[in-house]
TrEMBL record:
It comes from Frankliniella occidentalis. SUPFAM superfamilies: GST C-terminal domain-like (SSF47616), Thioredoxin-like (SSF52833). Pfam families: GST_C. PANTHER family: GLUTATHIONE S TRANSFERASE D10, ISOFORM A-RELATED (PTHR43969:SF9). CDD domains: GST_C_Delta_Epsilon (cd03177). One of its GO terms (biological process) is glutathione metabolic process. This is Glutathione S-transferase 1-like. Coiled coil: none annotated. One of its GO terms (molecular function) is glutathione transferase activity. InterPro entries: Glutathione-S-Trfase_C-like, Glutathione-S-Trfase_C_sf, Glutathione_S-Trfase, GST_C, Thioredoxin-like_sf.
Length: 209
């Protein structure tokens, strides 16, 4: 079965869903929509999916659903409660910290209330990077030795935030993790870097208009 994935060009959260689709080998029809066709969702709910009539929005809910429904084994979203709790911790961090701070930086630009990112918002984004730096353990991935949904969600938003505050080279453990993702996450360059460049183009056009 092919799922339909609806997205909006201004949504920075399409990338983790696309990475999950690739990692799981799911057939997906990716469709850009100004208005979501899924019942019960609105224009603010991109990305969203329609999986045989089951409609769902919010990227973090989507990636968890896809892993639960389609993964062979539990490499992306472990079934063991303790291992899954570690992944969930990072998913909550991605949605409550990384995503919110990215939105707080970009919303004034998109709404043309400002042409620069405020110092306060930049500092809050830097603080989020420091949280990742301080939390990373000895393994190459956020949760240890295996790639999980945590990596796919967090690295996508980190890449978007770097557009505004620069790269993570001054956070060595975080920088190593990002480089590891670039090399080992299937489709990273085609998905995350492409999304980042689209985001740069859109934001730059809004800032210069």
């Amino acid at each position: 079965m092919t799922i339909t994935l609806y997205h909006h060009p201004l949504s920075p959260t399409l990338a983790p869903v696309l990475l999950t689709v690739r990692a799981l080998g799911i057939d997906a029809l990716v469709t850009q929509k100004e208005v979501d066709l899924c019942a019960g969702t609105s224009i603010h709910d991109f990305p969203s999916i329609d999986d045989g009539g089951f409609c769902l929005s919010d990227s973090h809910a989507i990636v968890a659903y896809l892993a639960n429904a389609y993964q062979d084994g539990d490499f992306l979203y472990p079934k063991d409660p303790k291992k899954r709790a570690k992944v969930d911790r990072w998913l909550h961090f991605s949605s409550s910290i990384l995503y919110s701070r990215l939105v707080n930086m970009t919303e004034p630009l998109l709404n043309k209330r400002s042409k620069v990112v405020s110092e306060e918002m930049s500092e809050r984004a830097e603080a989020a990077f420091k949280m990742i730096q301080d939390a990373l353990g000895p393994g190459p991935w956020l949760c240890g030795d295996d790639m999980t949904l945590a990596d796919l969600c967090c690295v996508s938003l980190v890449a978007a935030i770097e557009v505004f505050i620069g790269d993570s080279n001054h956070y060595p453990k975080m920088s190593s993790w990002v480089e590891h993702c670039k090399k080992h996450v299937p489709g990273y360059m085609e998905v995350v870097e492409a999304a980042r460049q689209r985001y740069v183009t859109i934001i730059t056009s809004r800032m210069n208009s």
